[in-house]
Amino acid sequence: MAAGAGTLIASFPGSPTTSLHEFPYPPQTNAPVLRGSPTGGVPPVTDLVLGATAGCLACVLTNPLEVVKTRLQLQGELQPPGTYPRPYRGVLRAVGAVCRADGLRGLQKGLAAGLLYQGLMNGVRFYCYSHAEDAGWTRYPGGTVAAGAAAGAVGAIVGSPAYLVKTHLQAQTLAAVAVGHQHNHESISGAFQSIYEQHGVRGLWRGVTGAVPRVAVGSAAQLATFTSAKDWVCERQWFGEGSWAAVLAGGMVSGVAVAVTMTPFDVVSTRLYNQPVHADGTGKIYRGLGDCILQISSKEGLLGLYKGIGAVYLRLGPHTVLSLFFWDKLRKMVQPQQPPAP
User: Fold this and answer.
1) Contact call for residues 262 and 217 (beta carbons, < 8 A)
2) Among 21, 247, 291, 322, fewest CB within 10 Å belongs to which?
3) Three-class SS of residue 9?
4) Which of 206, 185, 34, 216 is nearest to 121 (CA)?
5) What is the pTM of this model?
6) Cα–Cα distance between 39 and 111 in angstroms, integer?
7) Cβ neighbours of residue 65 under 8 Å, at least 6 residues apart?
8) 7-10 and 18-21 as β-strands: parallel, antiparallel, unpaired?
9) 201 to each of 119, 163, 195, 210, 288, how far by Cα in Å?
């Protein structure tokens, strides 16, 4: 397979080799598919639901790293390095700090909002990418990456309110180890209600200017590097072709490129979502995407844009592989049984 083609060849246990788009995009087959026809025996609408469900299942297992990432990215906000207390030092020690302050349940803070975000964002991404594929856009050079980035941007816009609430809830903790602004929501429903009552519908999409480039850049980088990274691992015979170990290793190698390109937008997105706001809904700290980047780089240094990169990286590979695993299992459950050959 050509490097960067955006497809993943994986042999799942008990099934023949199949061609899948790197999650979270729909599977492809080499044979032409008629408009509106099922892919691999699964109706398109069902495929969208299964993809969103797979993303949610993966979210349950990787949400602790999201909590840690959020705390690390808010720590020392707009303060020069070395001038502020650091309750969170590295991924592993940050996990311990969260557990001591909030208990084991603290590692799953914001999970409900995270699941809502994964369902909305991935469902819309599937839907948009399916249309792009059906229209033949993905057959052009670079079409897979462009379609993936565009679909990711639309998904980010739709899922932005859920990501906003997720960030608020994951940042909340005891005053002794609190970082960033504390919104003090009682629940996910209370958070949505409070934001809507204070700032209206527009307030629910505050921070979306940071979310769109975050998802678009991350999606494009992953599609451009995942397959070539997996093939590179297999060529060196570190793992067997088609094994889940090879997929995981490819995801972790690809994760380096994705983490480097996406983390600055991830940090900016977290800051824009979590900042306090005036009565009219405008941010008290940052005026927007560009202002946030300038303030962070000037006051925290360029490395300030890479806070939490360890947690971002450690989440990427497992989340991709878990999503593929759940996707495969769910599709097998709903695919019609093929009649035995005569």
Assistant:
1) yes
2) 291
3) strand
4) 216
5) 0.83
6) 31
7) 91, 311, 314, 315
8) antiparallel
9) 20, 15, 8, 18, 18
Residue 155: name the closest of 55, 227, 60 by CA.
Answer: 55
Task: Name the token pair of 127.
Answer: 């839907």
Directed axis angle between helix 143-171 and helix 244-274, to 10°?
Answer: 60
* Sign of the CA dihedral with 273 first, then 276, 279, and 285 last: negative
Locate 317 and state its tokens.
């590979």
Token reading at 156: 């980010």
> Before 87, cis peptide (omega within 30)?
no
Structure token digits, residue 44: 């398109």
Q: Report how far residue 150's alpha carbon sits from residue 217's, in angstroms, rounded to the nearest whole number.
A: 10
CA atoms within 13 A on the CB side of 41: 11
- In this structure, what are the phi and psi dihedrals at residue 211, rounded to the nearest 5 degrees? -75, -40
Cα separation, 38 vs 1, in Å, equals: 24
Amino acid at 293: I
pLDDT, one tens digit per residue, over 52-79 is: 888 899 899 999 999 999 999 999 999 9
| Number of residues written out for the chain | 342
Dump pLDDT digits (tens) for 264-295.
999 999 999 999 999 998 999 999 999 999 99
CA 237: distance to chain centroid?
29
Q: Counting beta carbons within 10 angstroms of the beta carbon of residue 104, is it exposed (0 to 12), middle (13 to 18) or buried (19 or more)? A: exposed
CA-atom Rg of the chain in angstroms: 21
Helix H or strand E encompassing 19? strand 18-21
